[in-house]
Amino acid sequence: MEASNLIDVMSRKSQVPNFNTCVNVIRGLIKVGRLEKAMKVLQVMVMSGGVPDIITYNMLVGGLCKKGQIRAAMDVLEDMGLSGCSSDVITYNTILRRMFDHNQYDQAIRFWKDQLRKGCPPYLITFTVLIELVCRHCGAERAMEVLEDMSMEGCYPDIVTYNSLINSTCKEGKYEEATFIIVELLSRGMEPNSVTYNTLLHCLCSHGHWDEVDEVLSIMNKTSNDATLVTYNILLNGLCKNGLLDRAIDFLDQMVSRECTPDIITYNTLLGTLVKEGMTDEVLNIFLSLRRIGCSPVLITYNTLIDGLAKKGDMEKAMALFIEMNEHGVTPDDITFHSLVAGFCRVDLVTEALEMLKEMDRRNRKIRTSTYGIVIQGLCKNGKVEMAIEVLDMMVSSRCRPNEIIYTALVNGVAAAGMTEDATKLRNKLIERKVLKEDTETE
After folding, report:
1. Tell me, what DSSP letter sits at residue 172?
2. pLDDT tens for each residue of 17-52
3. N or C: which terminus of the chain carries fewer CB neighbours within 10 A?
4. Are 213 and 176 in contact (CB under 8 A)?
């Protein structure tokens, strides 16, 4: 503010301020929301012969739009051309989006039409943004009307425009509108491409329209639009999410037979579903074949398998994978360790769980409260109260606050060790410190 006031003084004394300094001051004022002051400094700069850059103008237009001052933003747009700085797609897109946010649909369409008539380049990106916004807020039919209307102004859609519209309608689950857009696309002599079909398939899979999925695949085959790796991954993901595992495996076989090589995303999708179904033997067989076919497992692959094995209590195989991932340079994360800790506690291997917890600490991994809690509960359950207190000390020193469940487990552990008097004292002390509630039940 002091800098902008100094610029005001300079202008009154007919002194020309440094233009780079003006730009920095304008941007600073915009960032702190002093838009009127920023516009005054901008005016001084322009009147002194300076030409602000497009970034500064777009920041100002964005700031005004954010505050709902759309008319002022449009005035800045008009001034840009006079100052020698041409507006770009970001300028137009910002104003159009804000108009739609304020339900000014017709005004937005009129605004873009006026800009075209004033000589604005028919930016395809801005045109696509406008049509997509019309489609989202007013429906596909209105979008097609605007699209036709804009053709008269020199704005012509391409396959990207139509794909954007199909994507917008599909995200909202409006499959019928997406079909209507495809009909329009075909009527203009254009051909859908793989992006068009993949977008449609993603929508259909998400909503479980499997008959329509088969229909789209059939059309793809007839029009020489072969299913790509992306297509198969979309299909497998949709089928797996809906529990249609047999059909997903059929598609995988079809994929291989058509010489479309699956990638790690394909396998991760399938492995995740197999693990959920408890089919760990099948999972391990597929996993072992990955490196043979030149597909290296990644962190999520290992985490999926380790978690599945840990939940089944097969800690020997889970640890073998843990060792393997380290050997192959895949760094375990918090999820890996949490799965192993929980798995060890599940089969009462609490000493191993404690060692894994210490390994996390050595590697500076973030340990969740729930992870500490599982170990403390497991140790107390197995009568290892001293070890549980050691974990509590670790927890506190790492600035992780124990919760009521952990303290209750400790009290119960002390009592189970035959020290009922000590357990009562500990309970009372925790209640006194308002860590436990008086009505908290302990054994």
Report:
1. T
2. 888 888 999 999 999 999 999 998 888 888 888 888
3. C
4. no
- DSSP output for 154-198: T----HHHHHHHHHHHHHTT-HHHHHHHHHHHHHTT----HHHHH
Q: What are the DSSP calls for 49-82, one per residue?
A: T----HHHHHHHHHHHHHTT-HHHHHHHHHHHHH
Question: In terms of Cα–Cα distance, which of 409, 437, 406, 412 is closest to 424?
Answer: 412
Query: Left (φ > 0), alpha (ψ -120 to 50) or beta: where does 319 sit?
Result: alpha
Helices 54-66 and 35-47 pack at an angle, to 10 degrees, of 150
* Distance, CA of 153 to CA of 216 (rounded, Å): 34
Three-point CA angle 21, 25, 31, nearest 5°? 145
Distance CA 255, CA 366 (A): 40
Higher per-residue pLDDT: 133 or 441: 133
Instruction: Specify the amino acid at residue 124.
Output: L
Assign residue 428 a region (left: φ > 0; alpha: ψ between -120 and 50; beta: otherwise). Answer: alpha
Report whether 407 contacts 435 (CB < 8 A).
Answer: yes
Amino acid residing at 46 = V
Please report, for the chain, the start and end positions of each structural domain, with discontinuous segments joined by +.
Answer: 1-86, 226-296
Q: Residues 61-106: pLDDT tens digits?
A: 999 999 999 999 999 998 887 888 889 999 999 999 999 999 999 9
For residue 107, count other CB atoms closer than 10 A to its CB. 15
Residue 282: other Cβ atoms inside 10 A: 15
Backbone phi and psi for residue 64, each to the nearest 5 degrees, phi listed first:
-65, -45
pLDDT at 387: 81
pLDDT tens-digit map of 279-329: 888 888 888 888 777 888 899 999 999 999 999 889 999 999 999 999 999
pTM of the full predicted structure?
0.68
Helix, strand, coil: what percent of the chain each, to 5?
Answer: 75, 0, 25
Best CATH choice for the domain 1-86 from the list 3.40.50.10540, 1.25.40.10, 3.30.1300.10, 3.40.50.12160? 1.25.40.10
* Residues counted in the chain: 443
